[in-house]
Amino acid sequence: MDRYVNEGTDGWTELRVHGVGGTSPESELGHPAVLRVAGDRQAGFYRRVWDSRRGTDDPPGFRREGYSWGGLTSGDNKRALWLLLLPFMLLNMAFYMDPGHSAERRRRSVEARIVAQRLLALSLTGTAVLAATSVSMDLVGWQCGAAGAGGPHCANGGVVWLNWIRYGWLAGTGRHLAVAALLPLAVIGLLWYLAHTTWARFEKRPVPQSVQQPDNRTLLENRQLWNGNAAVRRLRLLHVAGATALVGVLLLAPLPPGRDLTRLWHGSGWGTTPLGDARNAVLLALLVLLAWVVLRVALPRTGKREQPTVGEPLRRYRDGYTLLPLAASLLTAGAVVVALWRDEPLAPAPAELPWQVGATQWVLGAQGALLAVLFLTHVPGMVGALRGRRGEDREAGFGNPDFPRPAWGGLTMSGVALLATSLATALSAGLTLRVAEILGAPAVPGQTQHPGGQRLLVVPTAYYWAAAVGLASTAAAVALAGIAWAGIRRGRGASAQRVADAYPEAEVGQDEQGVRCTRIAASWDLAGRLDGAAQSVLGRLLATVALITVAGAVLGPVLGVRLVTEGPRWFLTLANLVLTGLVAAILWAGRQAYRSERFRRTVGVLWDIGTFWPRATHPFAPPCYAERTVPDLLERLEYLTPATGDPAKDGRVVFSCHSQGCVIGTAVLLQARTPASERTALLSYGNPATRLYVRFFPAYFDVRTLRRLGELLTDNGRWRWNNLYRPSDPIGGWVIVDDPLPPHAAARPRATAGCLPGAPDRQLLDPCSFGLRPGDSCYEEPLGHSDYFADQAYGDIVLAWRNSTAQQPVPGPAPAARPVVREEPPRVSAVRPWWPWQRLRPY
């Protein structure tokens, strides 16, 4: 017999949105049998399935629905490779940390920082490409390919994948370089494919505008934030063209007639041979294309997002940006042909690939200059912005002196940009040094011999200094983390009196009740101090990295050479191991995050914060899941809140959001159409908006934004907003005003629907009972950030909203029963063989 699914929309719908970790629909709805009623396996809407209509627990005019979006951020093990793009994600996240962003017209200093960030993103792409060319073209194609000219072979002939260098039909350095160039070109092609596929899936179709003239008072209200189809496309094509052109330039640089550009400009390098003239023409065209890419990225309008219009159709782009990757690919193909045509062996004068070291140093120098621009343009306006925000806090009327200020004095943007750049350089240095150590012995220009008789492989001096910085930063991170953890442990027990006041039977002492009180107080203290300790550790670590980086920029050219030639061997070996361990740790963390739900809930918080934001600066960053979740929920709210003309049958929604789902829900309700928001009540719990987002994204989550959200949820002088939090929750907390636990909080009155403006918060007692429950021999453990559904306050608020209307909804005719198709839980995509001829699953 067919089973029953309540598909009605009249009355109240409790729409649940989970947080990080990919919670299954069954767990989210608290029911063993669910059915997807909208969406797909990656992000879908589910309702409970009953054996019959009479057996349902849904009262008349009410049903429960869950939105499961865990498939957008979790999956099989191959998706762990996205973590290698962590520097791109961090730089993209730094864009939204700028406190100078506002809904009004941007200042010139903000525009300058936006241009600097996009150029910095282009330089990070160059860093990744230079790492690939350093390994394949420099170490293998150039230095190992010339092993027959004298000296020992790379790895003494023990590396199987280097046998192609000794093939007779590939004799010649030009051909070695042409074959070695396939690796960086393949990396660029993979990034191009992933970026295009995710763009077509998430960003190609914009969020349409709901009204002709929107009143956008805050940044999250502006649907321009999610309309990145044109801007991301332009940046993606520019990055692909620039990366491809860079490979072609490094391929042609060592080929005759000359490596000096001045000879080409003065004409002395022309007219030698037809092949030499072809090389010169292609090289100049690639250099011009590379300069053009840098210029276009620097233009402010290149990355500007457009304001969507009502009923905006899907665009078909036909402009010059489409031709840029094609032109770069054709020119690089010409460079490969010229290199393959050179069958004679070259006698390379320098030990390293010409222009490789120079390009690396130029890119690193440009990154330092751009970071200085970000810092210097940020500091003058930081003080005024903070003062203005304090004034806005007073004008808002909340009067809360504990409302958090921007972290690190408002320098979060510069700090995270520095972290992204340092991490990208560390990954590049670790890869290059590790390969050089496998093939021979890493060396610096000018070093002539190695004590072990191994072949010397020249590595840019900047990579040695990056290894030293990575080693020092790792030591500083371990020391700071140890100090912070010791401080947290010393602070445990400070909440013992709070626990004793909250529970009537609790007593501070050495007996069994005292031990129970101490354990609860320890969980409260840990949750209260964890975010502050993490913020302090990361801030001090970034300050240490900044000081070491500045010292390296001044002393690196001298100390970098002496570090290798005169320094202890164990130092470089240890630094190399640290960088190698960094890559291995990133891959391990990504694999564990998709295999272990507990690990994903812990580490996935940071990842989900970064991928919540659209790609504004780097088009190769991991895709933004909000590009899918926000439109899905906007459309679903419109469907669940129909205006039938009969108030008893109008659709209403209790928008129930947990953890990161609260951030998604805030963006959705700020952009929802007025009829839908007027029939929607927000119930948030474990909300990280104030605890994390206000501190690190002050332009997008501040007092004005939270007040605006409350105004949009106002009905008869009350906010349709309730926020629940616990003292044991390390992630969520109060949103506007802390609600202290009163003495004997266990006897607290029941929650009611709605709240007075400016007071949506209510702190829950956790655990609910202090002593042993009847029939139970174990004490109840604190729930922390999970299982808010188990608290009685949650059910009380939902029940209060269902009973808040003057006329109770009249149940209409029963929806027709539909057959239920059994299917696997959609939270994990099916694993398919990953063969070259099959379609990849990029996200």
Determine the N-to-C terminus distance.
38 Å
Instruction: Report the structural category.
Output: alpha/beta
Percentage of residues in strands: 5-15%
Which spans of ≥5 residues are poorly predicted at pLDDT below 50?
Answer: 388-398, 806-843
Mind describing the biggest β-sheet? 9 strands, mixed
Can you tell me the overall shape? globular
Helix content: 40-55%
Q: Could you tell me the radius of gyration in angstroms? A: 30 Å
What's the quaternary structure here?
A: single chain
Mean pLDDT across every amino acid position: 80
Number of continuous helical runs:
22
Number of strands: 13
Label this structure with key terms.
alpha/beta, 7% strand, globular
Task: Give a description of the structure.
The structure is a single chain. The protein has 843 residues and is of the alpha/beta class. It has helices at residues 25-29, 86-95, 108-144, 173-180, 182-203, 229-252, 261-266, 274-298, 323-341, 356-396, 412-439, 461-491, 496-502, 512-565, 569-595, 597-611, 626-640, 660-671, 674-678, 689-696, 703-712, 792-802; strands at residues 4-5, 11-17, 34-39, 44-50, 62-68, 441-443, 456-458, 651-658, 680-685, 714-715, 718-719, 721-725, 761-763. It is globular, with a radius of gyration of 30 Å.
